[in-house]
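Sample entry (143 residues):
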Amino acid sequence: MSDKAKRMTVWTGYFDVRLSRSEGRRVAREAAIPKPNLDAIAYAARGCGISKMRREGKASHPARPHSREGRLVMSTADALRATGTDSKEGVMQAIGSHLAGEYAKQREADQVARKRGPKKGDRRGRAQRGGKPRRGGERGGRR
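Predicted structure, serialized as tokens:
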């Protein structure tokens, strides 16, 4: 087995929902997120059970040399065993579904926090809130 067959490369562009399939996205839209970063993909891979991986943050995909998106290089045997699949596509779908699930949880938590408003001691956040309108029905009007 050659050295290339022993490792699998996963680029961050594979999980970018803003890209089309012809532009480089390799997972379904449901398994992709906007602006994926290398740390999030590594966290999702770790959540899938993949332990043998290496991050290369300054690498650029050959089709997108202008963007230094980064890649995750992992052991093929470990990735296939951990995800229970038999191909790179299956590994990417497993990582993508875990990534999308974590992204959805984070968005929901952010919406709840935004709805709750600023914390008690956050003066800057409270100062930005709208108050009661002044006389005349307009804010900042003359008295």
